[in-house]
């Protein structure tokens, strides 16, 4: 068994609310998803990226293996389940689920999730638990059983034992619309100043 958790960067969504390939959309001088991928690489943790079928995304660094999800059109849960099956195969002690359309999540937040024991998630301003989130190996079977367009959020919401990590709201921007893309770009530009 490996000591470090596996990070799964999920990038197989349809981007239906965005109206285009949002992961390749320009954001602060590079493709949107490259920000999340760079943060994953910066952790030094083992990682993989769940992609839609087709060519490897140009924004995905060579240091992160890509696994195509043949059932991507069936919803987000299929990508979560595929990542959990890969974590099982690798005998990972835990799986960190991260989304490629969250460009403002820093490597430090992913490392904080990796360092805590058990089930852990980001504490959103709304009060809910959400991704990025850490699932220990004893929860992989539940992740593998997920179906539809809901990710692992239901498992987080129903578990009173989930450890919530305090996170700045700006770290948790999820780009689903052009307006959210502009907000993420402003946050990233502010961090470079």
From TrEMBL:
<dbReference type="InterPro" id="IPR029044">
    <property type="entry name" value="Nucleotide-diphossugar_trans"/>
</dbReference>
<keyword id="KW-0808">Transferase</keyword>
<dbReference type="GO" id="GO:0016740">
    <property type="term" value="F:transferase activity"/>
</dbReference>
<protein>
    <submittedName>
        <fullName>NTP transferase domain-containing protein</fullName>
    </submittedName>
</protein>
<dbReference type="Pfam" id="PF12804">
    <property type="entry name" value="NTP_transf_3"/>
</dbReference>
<keyword id="KW-0460">Magnesium</keyword>
<dbReference type="InterPro" id="IPR025877">
    <property type="entry name" value="MobA-like_NTP_Trfase"/>
</dbReference>
<feature type="domain" description="MobA-like NTP transferase">
    <location>
        <begin position="8"/>
        <end position="158"/>
    </location>
</feature>
């Amino acid at each position: 068994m490996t000591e470090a958790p596996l990070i799964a960067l999920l990038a197989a969504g349809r981007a239906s609310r965005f109206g285009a390939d949002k992961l390749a959309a320009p954001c602060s001088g590079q493709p949107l998803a490259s920000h999340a991928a760079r943060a994953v690489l910066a952790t030094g943790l083992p990682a993989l990226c769940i992609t839609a079928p087709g060519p490897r995304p140009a924004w995905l660094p060579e240091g992160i293996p890509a696994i195509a999800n043949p059932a991507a059109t069936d919803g987000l849960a299929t990508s979560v389940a595929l990542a959990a099956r890969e974590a099982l195969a690798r005998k990972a002690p835990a799986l960190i689920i991260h989304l490629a359309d969250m460009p403002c999540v820093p490597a430090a937040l992913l490392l904080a999730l990796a360092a805590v024991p058990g089930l852990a998630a980001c504490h959103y301003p709304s009060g809910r638990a959400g991704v990025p989130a850490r699932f220990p190996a004893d929860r992989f079977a539940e992740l593998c059983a997920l179906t539809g367009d809901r990710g692992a959020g239901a498992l987080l919401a129903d578990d009173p034992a989930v450890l919530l990590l305090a996170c700045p709201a700006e770290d948790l921007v999820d780009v689903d619309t052009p307006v959210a893309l502009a907000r993420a770009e402003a946050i990233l530009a502010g961090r470079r100043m």
